[in-house]
Amino acid sequence: MFSNKAKGTIISADNTTLIAKGTEMSGEIKFSGCLEIEGTVVGNIIAEPSCETSQVRIQNSGQVKGDVCAPVIIVNGQIEGNVYSSKRVELAAKALVCGDVHYQMMEMVKGAQINGGLMYTENSSQKRLETPEPTSQAVDSNDILGQYVDSGLNG
């Protein structure tokens, strides 16, 4: 009845990255798979656009000061930045988001807080498939954030 499989949550031990409580990282993080944050990240978090199963889980002790871009984003900690999700956002009771939330589907429980706007997005998987791959080797985080926004996440 309360199975995570119904929501499509995938947690794989062989492709999970943990930023432990007491750890602080500065800079942009690009990943695929599952990223668990119990510490602090100062910088943008960006899932590989080709990985539809990637997810970010910000635990109650976790803090992110930057934008978060991933298909699935689960928050029970704090985000100071915008959230860009192409599939699902879950906000637990201790979630605090200071920024705009771009979502296709959202679950928000009593106690969660958003200090920003909510932007609903229609199914954007087809649009994202049509987005051309960048041709240069150097990657600018604003370009990657732009890909998520250009894929229809801004309404």
Could you describe the 3D structure shown?
This protein is mainly β. It has one domain. The chain is 12% helix and 40% strand. Strands 1, 3, 4, 6, 7, 9, 11, 13, 14 and 16 form a 10-stranded parallel beta sheet that branches. A 6-stranded parallel beta sheet has the order 2-5-8-10-12-15, with no helix packed on it. The longest helix has 13 residues, at 141-153.
Helix content: 10-25%
Series of secondary-structure elements, N-terminal to C-terminal: EEEEEEEEEEEEEEEEHH
Global Rg: 15 Å
Number of strands: 16
Task: Give the helices and strands, then pairings.
Elements: E1 16-19, E2 24-26, E3 29-31, E4 34-37, E5 40-42, E6 45-47, E7 55-58, E8 63-65, E9 68-75, E10 78-80, E11 83-91, E12 96-98, E13 101-103, E14 105-108, E15 113-114, E16 118-120, H1 125-129, H2 141-153
Parallel strand pairs: 1-4, 2-5, 3-6, 4-7, 5-8, 6-9, 7-9, 8-10, 9-11, 10-12, 11-13, 11-14, 12-15, 13-16
Main traits of this protein?
155 residues; globular; disordered N terminus; 2 helices
